Amino acid sequence: MPALPKAFTDTLQGLPGFREETFLRVHESPERVTSIRLQRQKITDVKELFPQLETTPVPWTSGGYYLSSRPSFTFDPYFHAGAYYVQEASSMFLEEAIRQTTGGEPLKALDLCAAPGGKSTLIQGILHADSVLVANEVIKARAALLADNLTKWGAANVVVTNNDPRDFARLPEYFDLVAVDAPCSGSGLFRRDPEAVEEWSQDNVMLCSQRQQRILADVFPALRPGGVLIYSTCSYAVEEDEQIMDWLVENFGMENIPLQLRPGWHIVETASGQHHAKGYRFYPDQVKGEGFFIACFRKPGTAGSPQKFKAGFSALPKKEAELVLPWLRNGAEMALMAHNGEAIALTLPLAKEMPLLQKQLYIRKAGVKAGQLTAKELVPDHQLAVSNCVAEGLPAAELSQEQALRYLRKEDLALENAAKGWNLMRFNGKNLGWAKVLPNRVNNYYPKELRILKAGTPDL
Ligand code: SAM
User: Fold this and answer.
1) What is the CA(180)–ligand 1 centre distance, in A?
2) Residues 246, 336 within the same domain
3) Which of 218, 386, 387, 431 has the fewest CB atoms within 10 Å, measured from its CB?
4) Which residues form the active site (predicted)?
5) What's the pLDDT at 305?
6) Both 288 and 314 in a single domain?
7) Ligand 1 pocket, mutate which of 86, 95, 113, 187 (most atoms under 8 A from CB)
């Protein structure tokens, strides 16, 4: 990677925890850290995923592991089954931040700057199952990627939206928890993204800082009094970190929530210049992870009465619901919604929120699409196959790794002894998608836009 510009390192001098020599050394070193987080509703043992690698827990998260080397995730069927998410280790500290600032009760949570979905999958994985998560991304193409990653994650209590932060003012005092993982100048990721080194400038830091303020001001009305705001960046710049903390306290009276750290974590506590708000800095020469900053706040005041809205989404008519229920695990405990001839499965708490969310936001994906309804049957959707709510005991074919990769490339498959009709395609018990077995061939229903295009073979 290119040498770090002096203009950049000069801005870090004197910052809490900054040690120039080791910081420069770690940026010069070719060593890279790889970490993943398990989707624990699909898998609990990391050894099943990477038997040939050394795996070590990321200390501030449950289900997060460092891998001793980077496998080719593209050729790993478990990756496509959504059994894990590849996520930078420092940012997994969000789990600890949420645990220390909320009480474990069901929450309405917003991840405002959510693509590609690392924080959203983490939030979904740790909140109470009756919580509702709105994962939002303002850039359309990135919102599509976010939706794909949340499809793979498989939860039925998540809504993906494609809105500008200012649109959330239409949901006054609605969310109990808002995460703003803000777009930033990105210095924390220099090790991974050498191009970012060349693009770095102090002018851009200032632009990012102003944009961060705009985003926070826009979303502020949507947080309920008493609710928690978690702000994070992957920048070391004081203008994007400590100065934003002061700005939140000064302009919105936000109450800073300090966190407890363990000494062995080597995370550096920092305080803002004016109001001494506590935030947490992660330096790659001190933690096993990239550069990161996080701070937590509570909105002052007490909550008013929740917004009233007409309950009732377009529930699936009984006859159609009967076509869908056999495909669902615990279908009786879920809500079924009709949308453009499709059946959508949602958790009951999410279904309750849907009328309001549909009215105020641009929804890209809600819950899990069960499939398209025809007069006689449900044509099951890919979302259902990789979800946590697909019924057990449906016809399924267990594929070898070679077959699984053929399936994921959307190539032809030959399946011996498979039942006729819809079958789940599985790799070591993890669902990859659907295929329809006909008398003389197998139709591969893996979504074209998700298929593996990269040539090569697995090195796993
Ligand atoms: N939270 C994500 C994760 O963990 O995978 C990473 C988010 S990234 C740091 C910041 C996101 O903010 C990007 O997806 C970017 O498209 C989005 N963004 C860019 N400009 C924005 C704006 N003006 N308002 C809100 N979000 C913006």
Assistant:
1) 8
2) no
3) 218
4) 234
5) 66
6) no
7) 113
What per-residue confidence (pLDDT) applies to 306? 62
Please tell me whether residues 202 and 335 are part of one structural domain.
no
Dihedral in degrees, nearest 10, Cα atoms 448, 326, 368, 104: -140
Q: Whose CA is nearest to atom 26 of ligand 1?
A: 113
Point out the ligand 1 atom lying closest to the alpha carbon of residue 146.
5
Q: Do 256 and 379 share a domain, yes or no?
A: no
Q: Is the CB of 240 under 6 A from ligand 1?
A: no
Residue with CA nearest ligand 1 atom 18? 183
Measured CA to CA, the distance from residue 385 to residue 424 in angstroms comes to 7
The total of structural domains in the chain comes to 2
> By residue range, what is the domain housing residue 123?
90-298
Pair (167, 276) in one structural domain:
yes
pLDDT value at position 308? 61
Write down the pLDDT at residue 302. 83
Q: Which residues partner with 161 through β-bridges?
A: 136, 363
Q: How far is the CA of 98 from the centre of ligand 1 (A)?
A: 19
Q: Assess whether the C-beta atom of 137 lies below 6 angstroms from ligand 1.
A: yes
Based on the fold, state whether residues 154 and 216 are members of the same structural domain.
yes
By CB atoms closer than 10 A (0-12, 13-18, 19+), residue 454 is exposed
pLDDT at 460: 45
In the chain (460 residues long), the average pLDDT of successive 10-residue segments reads 90 97 95 97 96 97 97 97 98 98 97 98 98 98 98 98 98 98 96 90 97 98 98 98 98 98 97 98 98 98 68 80 96 92 96 95 97 95 98 97 97 93 98 96 97 76
Among 298, 318, 333, residue at a domain's last position = 298
The reply to whether 281 and 170 lie within a common domain is yes
Domain co-membership, 173 together with 141: yes
> Which tokens go with 234?
């992957």
| Residues 120, 149: Cα–Cα separation, whole Å | 10
**Torsion angle defined by CA atoms of residues 243, 246, 247 and 250, in that order, rounded to the nearest 10 degrees:** -160
Which atom belonging to ligand 1 lies closest to the Cα atom of 119? 4
Distance 85 CA to ligand 1 centre (A): 18
Say which of 184, 208, 234, 296 is annotated catalytic.
Answer: 234
The answer to whether residue 208 is catalytic is no
Protein residue whose Cα sits closest to atom 16 of ligand 1 = 139
Burial state string for 407-416 with b = 16 or more CB within 10 A and e = fewer than 16: bbebeebebe
Predicted model pTM: 0.97
